[in-house]
Design goal:
There is one protein chain. The chain has about 325 residues and is an alpha+beta fold. Among the domains are: about 110 residues, Elongation Factor Tu (Ef-tu), domain 3, CATH 2.40.30.170; about 90 residues. The protein is built from six helices and 14 strands. The strands form three sheets. The protein has a six-stranded antiparallel beta barrel. Strands 2-9-7-4 form a four-stranded antiparallel β-sheet, with no helix packed on it. A hairpin with a 6-residue loop joins strand 11 and strand 12. Helix 3 runs antiparallel to helix 5 and helix 4 runs antiparallel to helix 5. The longest helix is centred in the middle third of the chain and has 40 residues.
């Protein structure tokens, strides 16, 4: 028993030492997983996108033409329908033109008649031959001065009559051109490329103050936006603009600023910006509400008056 006690004490000491060593290893602090993960995500995250402000706008046609007639008359034909696409110079309608056609036929007959000119040319040729035959008699003095003067005067008269006949033929040609111009006024043509959005008259009705059709130019579209006056120095003509339809935020159109109105609206503290939106195939319709965002330039250097800021905040 005496010899086993020291051995037992030694064994207990070894066990205690191993426990102390293992306890110190277990007591090491665990790494902060959350802090390391958050730190790595903060460094790898994409930079925040700049704030984009959207403003209410309206998409409108570039222009609308109410097409009437240059002269009053009865409508004979309407050659287009509502919703039809037309091109510049395309016939839209025709007025009754039987009288103008008759005037053209008469003027064409007069312009094509050269009998008077031919007659005067023959008379002048005769007078020239007459002078040639009597020139020797004039030189030797056989013809009296009166007879020689009559021969010369007859030639001058023949030359004058020929010039008068030629002028008359020229007037007939001008009258033909005038008659053609009057007839051309009876055909009404489109002054622009566009879309027929309204038709008011039918054949048999009188063309007067009421327009025949209404044509909208849809390329490009015109977008009008009202923007706070504090941005008047940050939106410039030619700057890019993004358009969204009110019904969809995923579909965006690209345009550019055409006009910046430097006269603000007093009641709202807003100014108008006009955007040009290309629409070559008429894919996008007009008459819709939209939202617009701009590419701003520089820094805000203009501060709106207190009244404008107050009225804008109330809105």
């Amino acid at each position: 028993m005496r010899t086993s006690l020291p051995v037992l004490l030694l064994a207990l000491g070894v066990v205690a030492l191993e426990a102390a060593v293992s306890g110190s290893a277990w007591s090491e602090p665990a790494p902060d997983i959350e802090s390391s993960q958050s730190g790595s995500s903060a460094t790898e995250a994409a930079p925040a996108k700049p704030d984009r402000s959207w403003y209410d706008c309206v998409i409108e046609p570039n222009r609308i033409v109410e097409l009437g007639g240059p002269v009053t008359g009865m409508l004979d034909k309407v050659l287009v329908e509502r919703g039809q696409r037309v091109t510049r110079g395309q016939p839209i309608a025709e007025l009754e033109s039987s009288l103008q056609v008759a005037e053209i036929n008469l003027a064409r007959a007069r312009a094509g008649d050269t009998s008077t000119i031919d007659l005067k040319k023959s008379r002048l040729a005769f007078e020239k031959r007459r002078i040639a035959r009597n020139s020797r008699l004039m030189r030797i003095g056989i013809l009296t001065a009166k007879e020689a003067d009559e021969i010369k005067t007859a030639r001058e008269i023949a030359e004058g009559e020929l010039r008068e006949a030629e002028h008359g033929h020229r007037r007939a040609q001008l009258e033909l051109e005038q008659a053609r111009a009057r007839l051309a006024l009876r055909t009404i043509r489109s002054p622009i490329d566009g879309l027929v959005i309204e038709r008011n008259l039918d054949p048999g009705e009188t063309v007067g103050e009421t327009h025949i059709v209404k044509i909208a130019d849809l390329d490009p579209l015109r977008v009008e936006v009202f923007v706070p006056v504090v941005l008047i120095d940050r939106i410039q003509a030619g700057a890019s603009a993004t358009i969204r339809f009110r019904t969809s935020d995923d579909f965006e159109l690209a345009g550019h600023v055409k006009v910046v109105d430097r006269v603000a609206d007093v009641s709202s503290g807003m100014f108008k910006v006009q955007i040009k939106l290309p629409n070559p195939d008429y894919r996008f319709p007009a008459g819709l509400n939209c939202k617009a965002s701009f590419s701003l330039h520089g820094r805000q250097a203009f501060t709106a008056p207190a009244t404008s800021r107050l009225q804008f905040s109330e809105r």
